[in-house]
Design brief:
This protein has about 45 residues and is an all-alpha fold. The chain is built from two helices and no strands. It has one domain. It binds zinc ion.
Length: about 45
C-alpha cells in the first residue's frame, strides 16, 4: 500500500482545544488537546 506522507497529514483532522474549542496550531506536540491560552492557564 503506497501512501504519500503529505496525503496522510492532509487527511488528519485539525486539533481542537478541549477547553474552549479553538483551533489548535500544531506547533508543539506537547500542546496536547488544549490551545495556547488554555495551556497557559493549566501551566502551573
Ligand atoms: Zn483553549
Amino acid at each position: 500500500m503506497i501512501m504519500k506522507i503529505n496525503d496522510f497529514f492532509r487527511n488528519l483532522p485539525k486539533k481542537q482545544c478541549k477547553e474552549c474549542g479553538n483551533e489548535i496550531e500544531e506547533q508543539h506536540e506537547c500542546y496536547g488537546n488544549t490551545c495556547d491560552e488554555c495551556q497557559h492557564v493549566t501551566d502551573i
